Structures are given as structure tokens and as C-alpha cells.
Amino acid sequence: MKKYDIGFIGCGNMGRAMLAGALDKGWTTPDKACVHTHSQASMEAVCEVYGVHAGASNRALAEESAIIVLAVKPNVYKDVLLDIRDALGDGQTLIAIAPAYSIAAIETLVDNPQVAVARAMPNTPAQIGQGMAGLCFSANMREDARDRVEALFASFGKVALVREDVMAAVGSVSGSSPAFVYMAIEAMAEGAIKLGIPAKDAYTFAAQSVLGAAALVLETGTHPAALRDAVCSAGGTTIAGVASLERDGFKAALIDAMDASAEKFRAMETQANDDLA
To answer: Can you tell me the mean pLDDT for 200-224?
Structure first.
């Protein structure tokens, strides 16, 4: 049995969100969690806030943790994996949350069939326990380990098991889309200001409306088009706005943005695989 339930190599915004959720929901306890970051000051700050242990090094953390979360930027994944692979052994799980590295690429770098890999795409609303993550596993992942990893992601939001070949789509619809939604909130608030609502209230109106609309989709299970139609009275104000959005290509623009995000995701995967050749 390992000393720690979980260890984070790197612990920026996403790593902290995952750690906070795991502790808040009782998935683990501070004495069973460990963090190691490149910055000593950052590591000390995380340990002070959450009461977790500081790892002596990436290798030491990897050796002592049952689950290792790679919460670093994609450009250092290769170096980190090469550094820790000799410290990994039977029954351990690596969790990758960066877009570039596929399960196969990680398995190639680790070169240890006893180590299982989970690949996930969480998003930033995980910081307030409202994340959405897609999750997939290597073929050698045991069922109990799968359940444990799935419960980890459920501790800071919703999680869906997906095929790895749709991970680029997951990256678009959850990983990148909060940025698109923030742009919509900003635009609606600016429109409200233009129409006379004070700026201090306009962003609350816009953000709460998005929050409420999203909650209605999730809680009722009703198709968004049906909910839209329910707001639109014949000859009314809402249908006038909807018609304007349709003329301006609102939905097409969002779909194009998701395509662009997915294209970049796939390009990063290709580059990572080329680097291994």
C-alpha cells in the first residue's frame, strides 16, 4: 500500500480544483495527499492552504502515491514522465489532464505495462465544484481503479466515460467552451448596459440567466430547442432576438469555434506523437 492516495505533479488552477474537490468530498484526507511543484513557493502555498504533504521530488512523489496526477503543462509532460517512470510500479495509476498526450503516447514513455493510465479533460468550473470532465482508461486499468478515478472526478463536478477517439470533441465542448460562454455573458452584459442597465447589475443579469438556463437543461432533460421555443411568443420580443442571432450565424459561429479548438487539439496530439518517433 502506498503512503499517499494521490499525488499531484504540478498544482496550478486545475490541480488545485481537483485537490480541493477530493478533500471536500472526502475522497481522501490531507495526510494522504501529496504535491510537488517546480516552484517551492507555490508548493508551500498549496500545502499551507490544504494541509497536504510536500513531495521531496517528482520521483519521490511518484514512488509513494497510488494515483499520480500530471497537472503540468503539455510541453513538460515528456520530461516529467521520463523522470518518474523508474519510480512507478504495479497497481499505480497515472492521470493525464493535458490535451497533447494520448494514452498510447504516455504508455510508450512510461514503458511499464503494470502502470495504468487515465486520460481526462476537466474544465475550469471545477474550481467551484461545477466541472465537467470526459474520462477514458487504458486497457490494463482494473475495475476498482476505474471506480476510484471516476469518483475523484465526480468530487468536483460531473464526469462522463468516453472513447478516447472523441477526446478532441470533449476538449471543445467542455474544456474550451467556458471561454465561449464567458464571451456570450460579456456580450449580453454589454448589450444590457447599452440598453440602460448599470454595469454593476448587467453582468449579474447576464451570468445568472446563463446559469439558470443551463440548470434548466440539466434538471429537466428537455432539449434546448424546446426550452427556447417555450420562451418565444408569437410575434414577441424573444423571437425577434432569436431571428437576429440566426441571421448573424450565431450557432454556426459556435460550431466553427469548436471545430477550430478540436483541430488544435488533434494537432497537439500529432506533434506529441511525432516527438516520440
So the answer is: 97
